Amino acid sequence: MVKQEHEVAVLEMPLSPVPHSSAPMTSTVINIRSETSVPDHVVWSLFNTLFLNCCCLGFVAFAYSVKSRDRKMVGDVTGAQSYASTAKCLNICALVFSILLIIGFIILSATGTVMNLQAFSQTLKDHGGY
């Protein structure tokens, strides 16, 4: 975590128009911590939960994303990064599995395998197989 210090100087103007006043100059130092932004991947997890929920990985990723957001709100940056990393890995796995499943279904549909299975099932039903 990178800490930066910014210095702000507050100068008081003397009340009299005399340029060489004996009024002391005061300065104020404000320390501002610029914490690193921890992405919690909630939107990505919600998308995977609603549309590409392969093996419930999207839902588990959503749970870790919410945990990451909670840790970030409490101020635990390390815990938030840990939960966010897990959510990111689960989201990637859900996305890859879902894309492979969609590609596989497209290939099966293009080759006519799905239609052949339906015709085979219908043939079995017609001949008393089941």
Helix content: 55-70%
The count of β-strands is: 2
Instruction: Let me know the average pLDDT.
Output: 80
Tally of alpha and pi helices: 4
Computed over alpha carbons, the radius of gyration is 31 Å
Question: How would you spell out the order of helices and strands?
Answer: EEHHHH
Structural class, please? mainly alpha
Query: What quaternary form is this?
Result: single chain
Largest sheet: 2 strands, antiparallel
Q: Per DSSP, what share of the residues sits in E-state strands of 2 or more residues?
A: under 5%
Main-sheet strand order equals 1-2
Distance between the termini: 66 Å
Give the overall silhouette: rod-shaped
Low-confidence stretches: 6-11
Task: Give an overview in words.
The chain has helices at residues 42-50, 57-74, 77-111, 113-126; strands spanning 6-8, 28-30. By secondary structure, it is mainly alpha-helical. A two-stranded antiparallel sheet has the order 1-2. It is rod-shaped and about 110 Å long. The model is unreliable at 6-11 (pLDDT under 50).
Short description:
The protein has 4 helices and 2 strands, in the order ββαααα.
